[in-house]
Amino acid sequence: MRLLSTKATCNSHGQDSSYFLGWQEYEKNPYDEILNPKGIIQMGLAENQLSFDLLESWLAKNPDVSGFKRDGKSIFRELALFQDYHGLSSFKEAMVDFMAEIRGNRVTFDPDHMVLTAGSTSANETLMFCLAEKGDAFLLPTPYYPGFDRDLKWRTGVEIVPIHCSSDNNFQITESALEQAYEEAQNLNLNVKGILVTNPSNPLGTTLSLEELNLLVDFISGHKNMHLISDEIYSGTVFNSPGFVSVMEVLNNRFSDADEAIWDRVHVVYSLSKDLGLPGFRVGCIYSENDTVVAAATKMSSFGLVSSQTQYLLSAMLEDKKFTRKYLVENQKRLRRRQKMLVSGLEKSGIKCLESNAGLFCWVDMRHLLKSNTFEAEMDLWKRIVYDVKLNISPGSSCHCSEPGWFRVCFANMSEQTLKLAMKRLKSFVAELSSSSDNGDNKAHQSKRKSLTKWVFRLSSRDHRQRDQEER
Amino acid sequence: MLSRKASKDSHGQDSSYFQGWQEYEKNPYHPIQNPMGIIQMGLAENQLSFDLLESWLRRNSNTMALKKDGVSAFKDLALFQDYHGLPAFKEALVNFMTSMRGNKIKYSSDKLVLTAGATAANEILMFCLTDPGQAFILPTPYYPGFDRDLKWRTGAEIVPMHCSSSNGFRITRCALEQAYQLGQELNLKIKGVLVTNPSNPLGTTMTKTELNHLLDFAIDKNIHIVSDEIYSGTVFDCSSTTGFTSIMEVLNERNNNNYNNIRNHVHMVYSLSKDLGLPGFRVGLIYSNNEKVIAAATKMSSFALVSSQTQFMLSNLLSDAKFIKKYMVENQRRLKRRKDMLVRGLRKAGISCLRSNAGLFCWVDMRHLLSSDSFEAEKELWKRIVCEVGLNISPGSSCHCSQPGWFRICFANISEDALHLAMHRMKVFTSSIFSVRFPIIMMRKKSF
């Protein structure tokens, strides 16, 4: 008889993927401006470090809140004892208001339909436990957040079947891709319980279009008992048009409240880890109009409750509407600026990104730097970037992208100088690549700039050829 | 449309344990606003020593402001989501555990996994040690929450090991073997035994003899032991015979090569919810020598991490060794005093308790008040106590006790006055039962 469970001994926690390996390399040799200027720069961490000053100044103006005081009185005892899995009602109210604000108040949420969880990691797993059995499957558009392989599948026994998205149409979800994924699941003898999307997308950094949202809603409408989970953890990071449309808005516009059949099958996940940059505080939530899901998820949240100390602190912060309005606007402004910095820095190296309007990262096209159009070549390139260029970025294969050559590069978790240095390193690397890959002529006297221009020219002509082929 | 887990009532929350709670919520006692309401004696919370914690907090306001040595640690904490836990907090926890348990074992922080409460810790251990359909033996009576925590999402089963009042509900080798047999008959693979030490609901610590029986049994059957020691800091009688002995201590005593296997089979759970009275902060942990379990449990803790804000504050609190020592001593003194108050009060009502030395509750013998030796009679009595006497207490059946008539009554979650009132109500109730049953005796008494 095996000593430990299958779950404990297998590696379906997914943590042997390159996503985590790059992290480990970084840990061995982390960049520090002063102590280790030649170290690896961490660009694989989707953290928002741009607006802490705003949070810190709020905390400094509101010291009572951290001191467990409300209206001058100590509420320590009350909070210390508070383990009600229904959550602090003032916090849930503040959360629903905040979520509504992010959505331009075009949707409102009911705190009684919210379940608090220790981070969206816990929220997503809990939803799986509520909606699916072992051997059921959820469809996920690729590329997707590598953590889902662990969060959705590991302890639940649920499977993921990918919806393959392609650069041909900027990785948007199409009806045929959905149908194909559904068929694939049938062929694998898996019962499809639903679709899970991240909107805005990680790793793409784009918001789902109205078309895609309608497509998803139509698809689950047309299939009995099928659910749609929309992980909207990045909803507050949208910094450019076309703006964010939540699946809840689409439902609101298309269906009446009485249409339980559809309202019962759409669930939203949210968290304060990305918008407020507070992953350490473990604040996530499930939102659903399905009373049974809310009831079950509430009980399950016992396994991952939010610290009452943290609930109280954040309820006070989010109740300060003047502050949250200011914060959201300023935060988005800073994200937009950073993204521009990354995009233009990459452009200088002849590297393009998927045009994005949200998130803490860009989806970067390095296909032209691959030795061959294969995932092996992608791994080779990735290793060079981690070990030689000393940038930890995430290879598309770790996100289950179906095309080699795409990488996720984060921009909000480091200082401006560090970002500029990273861009500089990349530029040298690309220049080196092009000079070493030029065949024929003696390159010794050629300036780096010239070879770069030649390389870029080669790149754009290849693109033209590809596009021609597709249009046929 | 939903999973079986979401639709069934396998979460176990329809048991009477929770129903009494609901009655209380409808009509809660308040000394001024609702003096006739139901007094909550079903909640194992420690509310006796908050003043000590609050005074520490006042003296250490920097910790609240997330400052370390005058510098703001906010950013670092806000970003800190490493499932290995805040090193300073883990250090503080192992030092706290080491000193709290009389320095008999040095606990080490690399064998520790932090979880959002013991609820998460226990479930994670089940995920690590059992596959669906496999089982753990639990001595009865046990904490009703285990039915949900250990079984619901894991698919694990519980095989009860029946303990009896005839020997003070102690664990015997014979009962262990019987439970194992029962498991075989039910076609369940037994993966281990889970004990709560000190026991909930008994309020007693396991003796060294019991612990050794447990170890011998686990060695013999090649299975795990999980020791939930969440109440270890509430032991208020600390003599050598009635003090607390951790399973880790007894394991340590078996320090030769024959016992290499068992070292990897013993796992401990702890939490700050009972000793420090901080259930809202969600601080629990798993402790184990088994590297594989620690590795897997660490990754699983992603689903239940402790807020870094809370880790920071409590690491500072626990590191104040002088304060903590004082706190533990005073807390235990107050618990003992309260327990004695409850025991005395019940005695005046003609009710005895299991002799206890720990916990936040007593295990109370009301068998003599039953109309018959049955669980139906126990339920009847319980309903009367909740609705007529106005006390929410937990019936033994909700704890899977094999003998009707036992109840768990909590003493550390209410004021002294409320406790006195509860005891008064109890006395009135039992007098009325006796006068109904034995009217002649009552009359004779009066004639004196």
From TrEMBL, chain A:
Pfam families: Aminotran_1_2. It comes from the Eukaryota. Its EC number is 4.4.1.14. Its cofactor is pyridoxal 5'-phosphate. Keywords: Ethylene biosynthesis, Fruit ripening, Lyase, Pyridoxal phosphate, S-adenosyl-L-methionine. The keyword Lyase applies. GO terms for biological process: ethylene biosynthetic process; fruit ripening. The keyword Phosphoprotein does not apply. Pathway: Alkene biosynthesis; ethylene biosynthesis via S-adenosyl-L-methionine; ethylene from S-adenosyl-L-methionine: step 1/2. GO terms for molecular function: 1-aminocyclopropane-1-carboxylate synthase activity; pyridoxal phosphate binding; transaminase activity. Residues 41-426 form the Aminotransferase class I/classII large domain. Coiled coil: none annotated. It catalyses: S-adenosyl-L-methionine = 1-aminocyclopropane-1-carboxylate + S-methyl-5'-thioadenosine + H(+). Belongs to the class-I pyridoxal-phosphate-dependent aminotransferase family. PANTHER family: 1-AMINOCYCLOPROPANE-1-CARBOXYLATE SYNTHASE (PTHR43795:SF41), BIFUNCTIONAL ASPARTATE AMINOTRANSFERASE AND GLUTAMATE/ASPARTATE-PREPHENATE AMINOTRANSFERASE-RELATED (PTHR43795). Homodimer. This is 1-aminocyclopropane-1-carboxylate synthase. It comes from Arachis duranensis. The gene is LOC107482547.
From TrEMBL, chain B:
Residues 39-425 form the Aminotransferase class I/classII large domain. Its EC number is 4.4.1.14. One of its GO terms (biological process) is ethylene biosynthetic process. GO terms for molecular function: 1-aminocyclopropane-1-carboxylate synthase activity; pyridoxal phosphate binding; transaminase activity. Transmembrane segments: none annotated. Gene3D superfamilies: Aspartate Aminotransferase, domain 1, Type I PLP-dependent aspartate aminotransferase-like (Major domain). It holds the Pfam family Aminotran_1_2. SUPFAM superfamilies: PLP-dependent transferases. It is an enzyme of class 4 (lyase). Signal peptide: none annotated. Pathway: Alkene biosynthesis; ethylene biosynthesis via S-adenosyl-L-methionine; ethylene from S-adenosyl-L-methionine: step 1/2. It catalyses: S-adenosyl-L-methionine = 1-aminocyclopropane-1-carboxylate + S-methyl-5'-thioadenosine + H(+). Keywords: Ethylene biosynthesis, Fruit ripening, Pyridoxal phosphate, S-adenosyl-L-methionine. PANTHER family: 1-AMINOCYCLOPROPANE-1-CARBOXYLATE SYNTHASE 3-LIKE, BIFUNCTIONAL ASPARTATE AMINOTRANSFERASE AND GLUTAMATE/ASPARTATE-PREPHENATE AMINOTRANSFERASE-RELATED. Homodimer. Belongs to the class-I pyridoxal-phosphate-dependent aminotransferase family. This is 1-aminocyclopropane-1-carboxylate synthase.
